């Protein structure tokens, strides 16, 4: 059995620990990101540092107030928020039901309100758009707030 000095043994240990750290770090990054890609949950696919620059979301968002006389009035949903510059943050299936309830609560104060409808569709990296809300659903009456299941 060859005799190794304490310094070379320590150096080998440091190299092993660095390699273990690198493998664990990359394994964790893959473990966190892959479910979003494998299950087509695109809104979860771009939340991690290693791929944040390769993700481009393009969303179309429109909320409309339908009056009892059939008139359709666009709702400026950004104006309802405390910080309009962060209005993109609710464009996630898990946050849309709460946001839809919020919009309904605010807009119920409008006279002659019949229902609220919305179009929320997002595309990821120029793929075909995915409808996140059923366009013909009344958000205030729908049991699932109009949000489409994944």
Rg value:
24 Å
Q: Could you report the average pLDDT, rounded to the nearest whole number? A: 77
Secondary structure category? alpha+beta
Q: How would you classify the quaternary structure?
A: single chain
From the spread of the alpha carbons, the general shape counts as elongated
Determine the strand fraction and express it as a percent band.
Answer: 15-25%
**Main beta-sheet annotation:** 4 strands, antiparallel
Query: Could you spell the SSE succession in H and E letters?
Result: HEEHEE
Q: What's the helix count?
A: 2
Account of the 3D structure:
With 150 residues, the chain is of the alpha+beta class. The protein has two domains: 6-49, no CATH class; 56-131, no CATH class. It has helices at 6-38, 96-107; strands at 57-67, 72-75, 113-124, 130-131. It has a four-stranded antiparallel beta sheet with strand order 2-1-3-4, with no helix packed on it. The longest helix is centred in the first third of the chain and has 33 residues, at 6-38. The N and C termini lie far apart (60 Å). The relative contact order is 0.14.
């Amino acid at each position: 059995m060859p005799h190794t000095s304490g310094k070379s043994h320590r150096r080998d240990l440091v190299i092993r620990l660095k390699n273990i750290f690198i493998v664990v770090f990359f394994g964790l990054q893959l473990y966190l990101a892959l479910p979003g890609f494998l299950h087509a949950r695109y809104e979860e696919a771009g939340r991690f540092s290693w791929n944040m620059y390769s993700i481009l979301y393009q969303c179309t968002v429109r909320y409309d107030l339908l009056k009892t006389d059939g008139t359709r009035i666009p709702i400026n949903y950004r104006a309802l928020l405390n910080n309009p510059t962060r209005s993109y943050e609710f464009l996630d299936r898990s946050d849309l039901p709460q946001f839809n309830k919020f919009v309904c609560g605010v807009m119920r104060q409008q006279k002659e309100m019949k229902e609220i409808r919305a179009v929320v569709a997002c595309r990821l990296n120029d793929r075909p758009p995915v409808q996140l809300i059923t366009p013909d659903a009344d958000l205030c009456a729908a049991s699932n707030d109009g949000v489409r299941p994944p």
